[in-house]
Write a structure and sequence with these properties.
Blueprint (H helix, E strand, L loop, with lengths): L2 H14 L3 E3 L11 E3 L1 H20 L4 E4 L8 H6 L1 H4 L1 E6 L6 E3 H27 L5 H7 L1 H22 L3 H10 L16 E4 L3 E4 L7 E4 L5 H5 L2 H7 L6 E10 L14 E11 L4 H17 L8 E5 L9 E9 L2 E12 L1 H10 L5 E3 L4 E3 L2 E8 H12 E5 L5 E5 L10 E5 L6 H12 L5 E3 L5 H11 L3 E5 L1 H6 L1 E6 L5 E5 L3 H9 L2 H7 L1
Parallel strand pairs: 3-9, 19-20, 19-21
Antiparallel strand pairs: 1-2, 4-5, 4-6, 7-8, 9-10, 10-16, 11-12, 12-13, 13-16, 14-15, 17-18, 21-22, 22-23
Helix pairs in contact: 2-13, 5-7, 5-8, 7-8
Length: 513
């Protein structure tokens, strides 16, 4: 099965099992907008909780905030979004499809890396244990040729981005012979800038309405509340402000399911530090955030850092944490050293001082900021992609299972009466009532136990508890574990402790402490 086929199955699975639905589907949907179903919203909330508790609960110097989506329009002038929040846009004249020019070039560069990797793997098989990869990469004419071409294009690309040279971006696309994946032609328009912000009107009448924007990021709500939080919380540097909230971007190309959407959710933390300390804290958060991802147990090799070729206008250092999705390594989270740009700009545009008085030095200054920003929807897709498994069992049967980390699973326990009589449903309901105040529990009595197991596997439920005839005699039940399918007999009285040990968020948080 190809990665593309796997991704299509994953998308279909999301709809079939109540994770993600196309928005307004009865009206044929709305492009790049999705709704989270009954299981999707539970998974999403659990991811939020993992992030929030790891950032706010585990750090005494980080507090939370929930700022408004609508903000004064001057906010976005100060932040630079009105004048500079653009992506380079290019159209194919034959397919009439629109693309980001920089993404087309980045994908071409990645294809060259894949070519090199294939050459290396072929050589590894040919030479066996004597294979020296470093020597091969530096002596193979084919590998050196592809690498030289890639590096030359990469250098041109970085220079074009830094100079905002749209003509050069188009010329790189032409020189690399990049074709439209739909029409197969290279009939491209000129590259032009496209502002990503959604605007709307606020006011009682059309004539008196003001133009405002749906926020394209949640960070500015933190910056304009910096002093409110610092003074009311008596916070001392360094300290952070965390926020989870919706953001909106009029993306040129919204694709790959929920990976790139026009309405999405962010989990951001802005960490305020003394000027000069920012790189130390940048390194700290860079490593800590990678640890957070890897603690989920999806394999360290599926993550990597990608340092930015072009820094944003506000940054002096930036890196992405990328995950190996079915469509390749893509960004999930960004870590940025934003200097004092944001607070200084808001101080300038508002006329209000946004400075911190340092009791140790006796001076006032504008703090520097280190940001961690993760796309919740991308994180949701990462967890689903990593958890989705199709496997053949020893008896030849097949099953689809979502191997979620138990604390993130939408449903923690499914309680199954063996039959719908003889008092078994009543005992099953009693177990549900005992567990439901601490965990999301479901009751399932339809179909055979085997079919119910398969259904819960496909939902990612870590534990199934079966009530049978023996239960009525000795108050014991069978616990069936999702990943191993092993079963054990336990007393009903110890169920809460067992479920808590396996499914509590505590287990994930302890890995980080």
């Amino acid at each position: 099965m190809t990665q593309e086929e796997l991704f299509k199955k994953l998308v279909a699975h999301c709809k079939e099992y109540g994770f993600v639905f196309p928005s307004s589907e009865i009206y044929d949907g709305l492009g790049a907008v999705y709704d989270y179903g009954q299981n999707g919203v539970e998974l999403k909330n659990n991811i939020k909780r993992y992030w929030w508790e790891s950032m706010v609960r585990l750090h005494e110097n980080i507090v939370g905030l929930d700022s408004a989506i609508f903000m004064h329009p001057r906010t976005w002038e100060a932040s630079g979004h009105v004048g500079a929040f653009n992506d380079p846009l290019i159209d194919n004249k034959d397919s009439k499809k629109r693309y980001r020019a920089d993404v087309l070039i980045e994908e071409w560069i990645e294809k060259q890396n894949e070519k090199i990797a294939k050459e290396v793997e072929k050589a590894r098989k040919r030479f066996g244990e004597t294979f020296d990869e470093v020597q091969y990469r530096t002596t193979s004419p084919r590998v050196m040729e592809v690498a030289a071409q890639r590096d030359a294009i990469h250098s041109r690309f970085v220079r074009a981005l830094s100079e905002s040279n749209l003509d050069e971006l188009r010329q790189i696309i032409v020189d690399c012979e990049i074709a439209d994946p739909i029409s197969g032609t290279r009939n491209w328009t000129e590259v032009r800038q496209f502002n990503l912000m959604f605007s709307t009107q606020m006011g009682s009448t059309a004539e008196g309405a003001n133009t405002i924007y749906l926020r394209p990021e949640t960070a500015q709500g933190i910056f304009v509340n910096f002093l409110n939080v610092q003074k009311t919380g008596r916070m001392k540097l360094p300290f952070g402000i965390a926020q989870i909230g919706k953001a909106f971007r009029n993306e040129i190309v919204a694709r790959q399911f929920i990976f790139r959407m026009r309405e999405f959710e962010q989990m951001e933390m802005q960490f305020f530090v003394r000027p000069g300390d920012e790189m130390r804290w940048y390194d700290h958060w860079r490593e800590w955030r990678m640890k957070w991802h890897r603690s989920l147990g999806f394999g360290a090799d599926n993550y990597r850092f990608h340092d930015h070729d072009k820094l944003a206008h506000y940054a002096n250092a930036a890196a992405d944490i990328e995950f190996n999705f079915p469509f390749g390594f893509k960004e999930v989270e960004g870590i940025h050293s934003r200097t004092d740009f944001d607070l200084s700009r808001h101080q300038e545009f508002s006329g209000k001082k946004l400075q911190y008085f340092d009791p140790e030095s006796g001076e006032s200054y504008v703090p520097y900021v280190v940001e961690t920003s993760i796309g919740l929807d991308r994180m949701f897709l990462q967890v689903l992609s990593a958890a989705y498994v199709e496997e053949v069992l020893e008896n030849g049967e097949e099953r689809t299972v979502l191997r979620f980390p138990a604390p993130l699973a939408p449903v923690k326990v499914a309680v199954l009466p063996l039959v719908k009589k003889d008092g078994m449903p009543e005992v099953a309901r009693e177990i549900v009532d005992a567990l439901k105040y601490d965990h999301n529990v479901t009751y399932d009595e339809k179909d055979s136990v085997g079919k119910r197991y398969r259904r819960q596997d496909a939902l990612g439920t870590p534990l199934c508890v079966t009530v049978d005839g023996q239960t009525l005699e000795d108050r014991t039940v069978t616990i069936r574990h999702r990943d191993t399918m092993q079963q054990e007999r336990v007393a009903i009285d110890v169920l809460p402790r067992i479920v808590d040990e396996i499914c509590s968020m505590r287990s994930l948080l302890k890995n980080l402490a």
